[in-house]
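Final report, closing paragraph on structural work. Over the funding period we assembled a curated collection of sequence-structure pairs, and we close with a single example.
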Amino acid sequence: MDDLLIEKIVEEVLKRLKEGKVKTDRILVIFTGSFTGLNTVLAQLKVLKNKYRLEAIYSEMAKKLGIPKKVLEDTGIKETTDYCLKDVKKILIPVLTQNTAAKIAGAVNDNPMLNLIFDGLMRGIQVVAVRNGADPWDENRKEMGWNHMPPALAKKLEDNLSVLESYGIRLVDAEKLAGVVLEEDQGYKRSIGKEDKGELYFQGKVFTAAELDKYEQGAVIRIKENTLITPLARDKAREYKIVFEQIK
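Its predicted structure, as stored:
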């Protein structure tokens, strides 16, 4: 048997193994009571469904609005009653509302949905939330007539998102949900406690506002050219007079 034939056989075996692989990585998708950007995130979840075992959990408001039926019809993702996090790899909040963001920021744990989120954070499970519905500067607000927000209110809503980032929650835009989850699946590790202040080289792929707590004011942080810096991190860096230096 020649080498070329062996190579083809191996490729075919690997292909069949890949096609028949059981999706064992479990992701809980927690839906709150909002339709903001729902169609966009459902399209993103359909992409993730090809790799992960997605299971949906709904708030009481989401159920009243009929969101479970739409999710099932558009994506095929089924509701689960298994709230055990033992085998959960990630928790997704595809439609983060202002109310949910405020409660998480204030460490308010008054319903099963929030209990799961806090339980996940304390277990070190990655939590990814779509920020659009809770972002005071989201473009959709203009269409809804919410473009005359008092500055103090906008600042409060911004602060809530900053707190979520400081908890380790990854905030993303709706259209980037699948890409972020798949990219970060290559290696997610949440650090606990502050790193050495003398370390001024950031090796991660995404720099969030929470990372800035590890550096002194006025620091120069070296990052790779393809590192993503969140808007909140940039704003906070300007406030602390921290500068990013891109390196290859």
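Residues 3-19 form the longest helix (17 residues). The chain has two domains: 23-184, 206-247. We thank the funder for supporting this effort.
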